[in-house]
Structures are given as structure tokens and as C-alpha cells.
Amino acid sequence: MLIEKFDFLELLRLAIAQSNGKGKITKDVVLGEIALMSPGAKLWAELLLERVDFERVAIITPAEEQTELFLSKYDFNYQVERRIEDKPGKVEFKTGEIKSALFFKVRNKMAKTIHQEMIKKNFKPNNPQGSLDNLAQSMAEVVLRGHLFVKAMCPHCQGVGKVEIYEGHANPIGTKFCDKCDGSGKRPYTLNEKIGIAKLVLTKTAYIKSYQKYEQLGESIVAEWENQIRNKLSKSFNFELNETKNVTYA
Fold this sequence. Notes:
This protein has seven helices and six strands; from the N terminus they run αααββββααββαα. It folds into two domains: about 10-50 and about 100-150 and about 190-235, no CATH class; about 55-95, no CATH class. Helix 1 crosses helix 2 (about 25-35), helix 3 crosses helix 4 and helix 5 (about 130-150) packs across helix 7. It is an alpha+beta fold. The protein starts with 7 loop residues before the first helix and ends in a 14-residue tail after the last helix.
């Protein structure tokens, strides 16, 4: 059975979910530690605690009056309009915009770094849609959606993010990150879906060649924030990250 070390990103979620009862790790303690983090890590920690969802937009089709024409029984050259049963209305729901203001704060913070890198590299998109600033925001949104919205659990690692390595077919000798989901435990967005999220009009080859490096930059920013969160909380609760046994809390 695959058993992983305790992840402080999960502590972040679990501690906030608990009421302020007995124990050392309470909501107030964790919120206090979040407040002492760097601005980027603080925003990311807060976003991880927030339920980010899309607006549900209701499209209402009202009922329509229906009529039909028929011939008068007194004058076959005369048509009479008669009211019939109304065509019923309906309500349909579609996915709207993301409704979290915090999501866009984090997106804009990440986009600022991506935008600076685009300028530094003198990036000139082949098929520009809007300014570089808008393009940087689109790439940041691709990264954030990949982390916050779960399409489905990765079937290869069963959502764990890692798989066991076996010696022969019986003895497990370690673990490695799942190469199907890059260790996220989620089924990742396809290239076509990423292009759609970024509102780009280009081929998959063009995305890989010119745009993917900025997506990877966004991923490195998230990784840095998460490492800061883990390190801060591990020090706060006297937890040694290289320990696998005897976990203690202050």
C-alpha cells in the first residue's frame, strides 16, 4: 500500500475546516501563520482554502402563444386564426465566469511575472489576440484552472499523484511521480482545452513551441508558493520535512 508523508497543504485545508476547539492546530493558529507568509504564498494559501466555482447563468425562454389558421365552415375562402395551447417555456443553465475575486488577484499577480518574462524575451506571438498583458493573464488562468478545477481523478495513480516502483512484480522499493498527471493526481487539461481556456486561435504545435514555456513558468511560480507554505507551516509546528516517523506538534 502506498503511504505518503503528511502534506502541509492538506493541513492547511483540514485546520481551517475544523472549529476552534481543543488542540494545538486551530483555525486561528493556521490563519495567523498564513498572514506571515510572502504576499504571493499568502494569496495562494487563501485561494486554496476558498471554494472557487463558476457562476451558473440561467437562460430563461418564456412561454410562447401559439395559433393556427383554419377555414371557416361558412366561407371556405376565409381563414380564421384560432388560439391553441402555448408552447411551454424552459430554463437552461450554462457555465459563466469564475466568481472568485481572489482567483483574479492571484491570476493577475502571476500574470505580472509572466508578462515581464515575455517582454524580457521579446516575445512576439504569431497570431496576437490582444496585448501581451492580456495574453499573460490567459496563460496564468490556464495554470490556475489546472490546479483548482478537477476534471477527473487520474486513473493511472488513482488520484494519489505517485505510483509505486516494484522490484520484479512483488516487492515495492519506492515511489515516483505519476508521469500521466505530473504528480497532480488529476486528469490534466488537453492541449486543445488549454488553448480554449486561453482564448487562442492556433495549432497545438504552435502552442507547444511558443506558449507552453510561459505556462511552465506559471507552474514554477505555484510550486514556489507551495514550498513556502510547506516550509512555513512545518517550522511553525516543529515538523521535520525529512522525518518519516514520530511526527510531533508544538
